[in-house]
Amino acid sequence: MSLKTGLQRIVLVTGANKGLGFEVVKKLAQKSSSNTNPVIFLGSRDLKRGQEALHQLGSPPNVHLLQLDTSSEKSVTHAINEFKQKTNDQLDVIINNAGILPKDDSVQAARETLATNYYGIKIVNEHLIPLLRDNGRVVNVASQIGSIILMCMSKDLQNKYTSSTLTTKQLDRLVEDFLSALEFNNLKKAGYPDDLHYLAYGISKAALIALTRVQARQYSDGKNIFMYSVCPGFCNTDINKHAPGTRSPELGADSILYAVNTPNDKLENGAFYFDGKKLPEICVNKAKIEGLIKLTEYLRAST
Ligand SMILES: NC(=O)c1ccc[n+]([C@@H]2O[C@H](COP(=O)([O-])OP(=O)(O)OC[C@H]3O[C@@H](n4cnc5c(N)ncnc54)[C@H](OP(=O)(O)O)[C@@H]3O)[C@@H](O)[C@H]2O)c1
Questions:
Q1: Listed GO molecular functions (predicted)?
Q2: What is the Å distance from ligand 1's center to 23 Cα?
Q3: Range from 66-75, 204-213, 284-293 carrying the lowest mean pLDDT
């Protein structure tokens, strides 16, 4: 049965059963008491965890659960069919928030990370962007770690990742080249840093920032839609094991929602934002590498 949505904005948030995605849904659901409240789909890969999240929100009538595992094409197809039936093929905002940190530095963990943080988002976008209404937008939750990792790559790789003519096919190739360099112990020669833990996470976020720019260019040709990547900042959630020095998930959600709610003519299509400020794709602050090393040491020590 389809929902009566009328003029309401329809928003999908992936990975929203906890952490930043949950905060985003909470803030969107509280946004106004008028009948133009958005209709929100709370994405969760696990049905039970999604139901618990919905319950924790007080089961607002405008929030609906959608089981969606972004790393599985089967789950994506199934969820999208369900979504289409419920919304009559309409959508205004996709917030690609689901993300993981690799369990360790293995190739297997790197593949899993890229499947969720890069390929999963690419597939969700390919299926859902055609449903976006005029002025629709996509917000991809990336991380400044992506821009720090880019700073640590060879000039040649930096140029490839940030090329204004980059295509999704070439970007997939870059991601596959990274995985094979990791597998064959060839990182340094291939232009990647070989002394950083959780490198696959940084690569996944660098690729996501690039994907946002590439897909923004690709899709704005035929349609009035906008895409942004955002960093929520270093926030107190499970992904970083509630590391010291984090800020609140509420602030992280605000950084994401800035890209959701700011008029499109005040933002640059395809660009990367943090707390409402546009950031360069390649970080220019070398001191940030030190912070990243400290964080990876903390994460390794707490596993
Ligand atoms: N927290 C930070 O400091 C920080 C900084 C920069 C960027 N980010 C990014 O912010 C996003 C949200 O992270 P968070 O901090 O809120 O972490 P979190 O608390 O660990 O939440 C991650 C969410 O993503 C879901 N998820 C993971 N893999 C998924 C998949 N294949 N399909 C669907 N959902 C999946 C998780 O579901 P389960 O509960 O089922 O595992 C969970 O709901 C991530 O993309 C992360 O990389 C976070």
A1: oxidoreductase activity
A2: 12
A3: 284-293
- Helices 120-128 & 199-220 angle (0-180, nearest 10): 20
Q: What is the mean pLDDT of residues 122-136?
A: 95
Q: In what order do the strands lie in the sheet with 39-44?
A: 63-67, 39-44, 10-13, 91-96, 132-141, 226-231, 272-274, 277-279
Question: Which CATH superfamily does the domain covering 10-301 fall into?
Answer: NAD(P)-binding Rossmann-like Domain (3.40.50.720)
The pLDDT value recorded for residue 32 is: 59
Domain boundaries, the chain: 10-301
From the CA of 235, give the closest atom in ligand 1: 3
35 Cβ contact list (under 8 Å, min separation 6): 8
Q: Are 43 and 20 in contact (CB under 8 A)?
A: no
Q: Are 93 and 10 in contact (CB under 8 A)?
A: yes
Where do runs of H (alpha helix) occur along the chain? Answer: 19-30, 47-56, 73-87, 107-114, 120-128, 144-151, 155-162, 168-183, 187-190, 199-220, 249-261, 287-301
Counting ligand 1 atoms within 8 A of each CB, the residue from 18, 101, 208, 274 with the most, and so the one to mutate, is 18
The torsion angles phi and psi of 191, rounded to 5 degrees, stand at: 100, 10
Average pLDDT on 176-204 reads: 96
- Length of the chain equals 303
Does the pTM surpass 0.85? The reply is yes
- pLDDT value of residue 301: 86
Residue 65 pairs in a beta bridge with 42
Query: Strand 39-44 and strand 226-231: pairing?
Result: unpaired
pLDDT of residue 7: 74
For ligand 1, is residue 96 a contact (CB within 6 Å)?
no
